[in-house]
Amino acid sequence: GGDSDKDRTLGVVKCEFAPAGSYAAGTWPTGWCHKLDAQCQVLGVKDNLCGKCTPHGSGGFKLEENVAGLRWNGASFDDNQIGRGTYQAMNICTLAKYGNGGTIGDVPTVKCAGYSQRGVASQVHWYGNCRKGRSSEKNCCSNAELLQSGFDWNK
User: Fold this and answer.
1) 39, 47, 89, 97: which sits with the fewest CB atoms below 10 Å from its CB?
2) Rounded-to-integer distance, Cα 63 and Cα 52, Å
3) How far is CA 12 from CA 1, 8, 15, 25, in A?
4) Is the Cβ–Cβ distance between 119 and 68 less than 8 Å?
5) DSSP letter assigned to residue 75
6) Which residues are registered as beta bridge partners of 60?
7) Peptide bond into 29 cis (omega under 30)
8) pLDDT tens, 35-74?
9) Largest CA distance in the chain
10) How far apart are CA 105 and CA 148, in angstroms?
11) 107 contacts: CB under 8 Å, gap ≥ 6
12) CA dihedral 96, 65, 88, 28 (to 10 degrees)
């Protein structure tokens, strides 16, 4: 196969592979994703949302991914309604700590906060730009209500 034009022949191709799930360059949304490592497990994180886990505060954790941003199931998180004490920030922390559908033990505090950083701009994201406590949007907005045990982030 091929077209009918005449090109120079390929003389060299350089290829590199990283172990599946390793932190490496790649396209959105799978590239630049930190593995769930021993540090995450020590901190009680079930899903690191592609972020690097570090201890934070009194028994808490911080997730950070500055190249491509935090994300879950192919989407990032809304950059609105993400500051300290928002339900969206508290819910993202719950998703990280217990995993999708998890049983919630300790509840997130109003000290939970998210911040937009460089990362990949203008990506598809989970909707979170609604008023805190807006129960009519609880099935579509991550800032509407606090998650309950058995939650499904996909809904």
Assistant:
1) 39
2) 5
3) 21, 12, 10, 22
4) yes
5) B
6) 56
7) yes
8) 899 999 999 999 999 999 999 988 899 999 888 889 999 8
9) 67
10) 10
11) 94, 146
12) -100
Tokens linked to 90: 């508290």
DSSP H stretches of helix in 50-99: 87-98
**Percent of the chain having pLDDT more than 90?**
48
What are the structure tokens assigned to 4, written together?
Answer: 């009918």
Which stretches of the chain are DSSP H helices? 38-42, 87-98
Closest CA to 153 of 102, 80, 115: 102
CA 70/CA 128 separation, integer angstroms: 15
Name the amino acid, one letter, at 70: L
- Dist CA 132 CA 153 (whole Å): 17
Residue 38: exposure state from Cβ atoms within 10 A (0-12, 13-18, ≥19): exposed
Give the pair of three-digit tokens for residue 131.
């008023």
Q: Is 135 helix (H, G, I), strand (E, B) or coil?
A: helix
User: What is the percent of the chain where pLDDT is above 70?
Assistant: 82
Q: Which amino acid is at 152?
A: D
Q: What is the DSSP string of 88-119?
A: HHHHHHHHHHH-TTPPP-SPPPTT------SS
How many residues are given for the chain? 155
